[in-house]
Design a protein that fits this description.
309 residues; alpha/beta; Rossmann fold; eight-stranded mixed sheet; 10 strands
Length: 309
Amino acid sequence: MDNTASPAPDPVTFDSRGVALAGHLRLPPGSGAGRRHPALVCVHPGNGVKEQTAGIYARHLAEKGYVTLAFDAAHQGESGGEPRYLEDPATRVEDIGSAVDFLTTLPFVDEERIGVLGVCAGGGYAVNAAMTEHRIRAVGTIVPVNIGRARRAGGSVAERLAEVGKRRTAEARGGEPSLTAWLPDDPQDLVTAGVTDIDLIEAVDYYLTPRGRHERSVNRLAHRSIAPMLAFDAFHLVEELLTQPLQIVVGDRTGSFGSRRDGQELFDRVRGRKDLFVVEGASHYDLYDRPEHVGRAVERLAAFYADTL
C-alpha cells in the first residue's frame, strides 16, 4: 500500500471542554450533496500528531468510503490548551467524545454509523471512550496499548508520584512548567547503551528520524502527565461496558511496549463481538507506516467497518 501524499484534507476546528482542537477531515470519493456516509474518528498515539500514523489510516480509510477525522489532542500539536504537551487520559478520552459531537453536526455524516480507530495509546483511549460513548458503533484498534499499565511497569510508582508533586510545587511557586521526554532525544544514545528492545529502537526511528518525524511531534511531555497516566486503566470495566463490535490488530514481533500483550488481554476480556488479527512479520511500529503491513491492517479494518457500520 502506498503511503505517499494524496489530496490535502480539509483543516477543521472543534471544541472540547473549551479548548479548540485542530483536525483533518477527509471525505470519501464520490461524496456529494445529499449523500451521507459512515465516519471514523482516528486517534493518534501518545507523542504523536494527526499528520503521522493516525493520518495515514485516516487517508486509507477515506479511500475505502469513510469520512475520517484525525485530530490533535488538546494541549498538543496544533490544538489549543495549556500547559503544552499534557497527556491526560481523561482529557484524551473526552476529546474523542467531542470529535463525535463534531461529526454529528456535519450533514454528510450518518450519525448512526460512527466508529473509532485508535493507534497505540490512542487504541486504549478509543476503547475507554467507547465504553460510555455509545454513539460510537464500532471500535477498531491498531497495536493498542493500555498506557496506564505500561507506565506502571516502569519502576516505583510511589517515587514517581512524589517527584510529580515536587515539580508541581515548584511550578506553583513560579517555576517554568516541567517537561520530560517520551524517548531518548539522540538515537545514538540507544546504541551507546546497548539497547536491543525492538519497540524502543523503532519508536526512536519513527519519531526522531525523517521516517515519521513531524515538526509538531516534539518528543516532550508535561511532567505532571505522569500522575494521571499512572492512575489510568484503559480497560477498566471493559467486560461490562464495551458492547460494540471490536477489531484488534497487532503484530507478532513484540517488544517492551506490550501491544501484543494488551491486545490479547483486551480480546480475552471483552464479552461481545470481537476479533484479534495478528499481522505476521510486523512489529508495533511496522503497523504505524510500513505500506505492506498497513495495507493488511486497512483491508481487515475496512471489512470490519463495512460489516458493523
